[in-house]
């Protein structure tokens, strides 16, 4: 299984807050942290130290996707946000980034395992696809 956590955050969000939200999201989905394949976000978040620190802490790749890669997933988002669109160029970051990266890695349709969850300054969603042998 390919499992990706999509993450969005406000400027300056701490690695501690991001990691706590990720742990809560994984627990709700009943998935171990070690099952994650990668983390994904918008390239608008490229300067966010918290995201980069989380990827280093978990020893996972962090893929930062451009808005044009996230845009096709708008119809699959649980919430479309004009505020997020203005900030990142995409109507949603966490869900769209997770879905897009899973589909890139699996070369097949992805599904949300868990839609976007929130903390005070971050969002997290889980997407997955099976791996074929």
TrEMBL record:
Any Pfam family: CbiG_C
Entry's transmembrane regions: none
InterPro entries noted in UniProt: CbiG_hydrolase, CobE/GbiG_C, CobE/GbiG_C_sf
A GO molecular function held by the record: hydrolase activity
Record keywords, A-Z: Hydrolase
Residue ranges constituting the CobE/GbiG C-terminal domain according to the UniProt record: 3-127
Entry keyword annotation includes Hydrolase: yes
Top-rank taxon: Bacteria
Gene Ontology BP annotations: cobalamin biosynthetic process
Protein name, as recorded: Cobalt-precorrin 5A hydrolase
